[in-house]
Amino acid sequence: MSTIQQIYGRLCRFAVFGGILKKPLLTHFMSYCRAGGDIATRRMAYGAFVAEIYAGGADLTDCVRRLVFEDENVYVKTIGNMARPSPHIALCAANELTTLSSFAALTTADFAADMGDLDYLPAFSSSPVDLRAEYEERTAAIGRHGYGIFAANGMFSVGEDGSILPIASADRISLDRFIGYREERQRVIDNTVMFLEGRPAANILLYGDAGTGKSSTVKAVANAYFDQGLRLIEIRKNQLLQLPRVMGEIADNPLKFIIFIDDLSFNQNDDTFSMLKATLEGSASARAKNAVIYATSNRRHIVKETFDDRAGNDIHRNDTVQENLSLSERFGLTVLFAKPEKKLYLEIIHELAERHGITRDPAELEREAESFALKRGYRSARCAEQFIESLL
After folding, report:
1. Residue 301 falls in which region: left (phi positive, over 0), alpha (psi -120 to 50) or beta
2. Which of 109, 120, 190, 216 is surrounded by the most beta carbons within 10 Å?
3. pTM to 2 decimals?
4. C-alpha torsion 32→35→36→40, nearest 10
5. E strands within the chain?
6. What is the pLDDT of residues 34-52, one digit of tens each?
7. pLDDT, tens digit, for every residue of 118-161?
8. CB 259 within 8 A of CB 233
9. Contact 247/288 with Cβ under 8 angstroms?
10. At what angle are helices 87-104 and 131-140 packed, to 10 degrees?
């Protein structure tokens, strides 16, 4: 019996990593093995198998490694819950990882020999690997690596049904990209570090003028601490009623999560107002211990209020007004990102010009930058970036 057929026989008995067998890479391999002496079917299955490898970067070992680390199985979930798996499950997982190591090391030559095919076969890369050792190393530090969809992705969105979905084109912005607002950004960083270290951390409201870098700061912090087990889940304001479901999904996960709400504001009688309030107050049904909420808003008081609201016919009008205005106070930390003064705006302009290799008389550059901001009616970091882009 060939090596390929031996591996196939062991794969058929998988119990812990059985979910991997449903992935296209494995289904095509299994189809190849089941084809028997039907060479045409085997060649077609081989072609589909290699196409999956190409889609993952042309290296079989890397493809299998990703499948293993992202698989949600009873073994890794038990460890993620800080419990000890059954000895039977642990032994089964170890044996299956050994099989997957053999599978990940298969070569184009192995398939050519198995088919007795001397014609050209689409080639791929592979290398010897000990997935059992790598898996043990990752599960020993599961609080940093995570498992399932959280193993390889750092940012997520929430589907209409409340499911958590990876963001394929997540913002990769890094902290070293920013200019100015150092003190404001450091407050967010310090709070996040406390959160990751298991110390008391606050929910944060980042508020202030548009284009000052509030949202980018949150995303950059999430990127910076990905390797320490931090993930970001972005939820839209109209999805806040899904918060209990999202919190329930991550409650037993060993990772730490930022629940990110961008551009937050409420109208009167908004159904989602009470849900966010309950979460910020730590309601047992709405809050996960491994999550904090970071929200951005252009408003310090995030419930929109009119003069009519203050002059309304509510008998306890003052209580109602204070209830609305106090929502922002339920964030443990508020950070103001104010519109930059001229000095900071020009500092940003010069730094961005240097980064992009723009050589121009400094005085002329400043005059043009000020003119550009005047036409838009305001100075901001975003305005500075747009001005530099116009020069490029």
Report:
1. beta
2. 216
3. 0.80
4. -90
5. 155-158, 164-166, 204-208, 230-234, 256-261, 291-297, 333-337
6. 998 888 899 999 999 999 9
7. 678 899 999 999 999 999 999 999 999 999 999 989 999 999 88
8. yes
9. yes
10. 130
Best CA proximity match to 4, nearest among 89, 117, 80 = 117
Q: ∠138-135-59 over CA atoms, to 5°?
A: 110
Q: Which of 28, 386, 59, 25 is nearest to 210 (CA)?
A: 386
pLDDT score of 250 more than 80: yes
Percent composition of the chain: helix, strand, coil (DSSP 3-state, to 5): 55, 10, 35
Architecture of the CATH domain 155-336 = 3-Layer(aba) Sandwich (3.40)
Q: Is the dihedral of CA 195, 339, 308, 241 positive or negative?
A: negative
User: How far apart (Å, rounded) are the C-alpha atoms in residues 296 and 203?
Assistant: 11
Identify the DSSP state of 175.
G
Judge contact between 191 and 204, C-beta under 8 A. Answer: yes
Question: What is the C-alpha to C-alpha distance for residues 128 and 58, in angstroms, rounded to an integer?
Answer: 15
Among the listed residues 213, 206, 211, the one whose alpha carbon sits nearest the alpha carbon of residue 258 = 206
Tell the residue number behind the tokens 């999560």, with chain if given: 257
Burial (Cβ within 10 Å: 0-12, 13-18, ≥19) of residue 149: middle
Q: Do residues 388 and 358 make contact, with C-beta atoms less than 8 angstroms apart?
A: yes
Rounded CA gap, 345 and 256, in Å? Answer: 35
Q: Count of CB atoms within 10 A of residue 392's CB?
A: 9
Structure tokens at 290: 């491994």
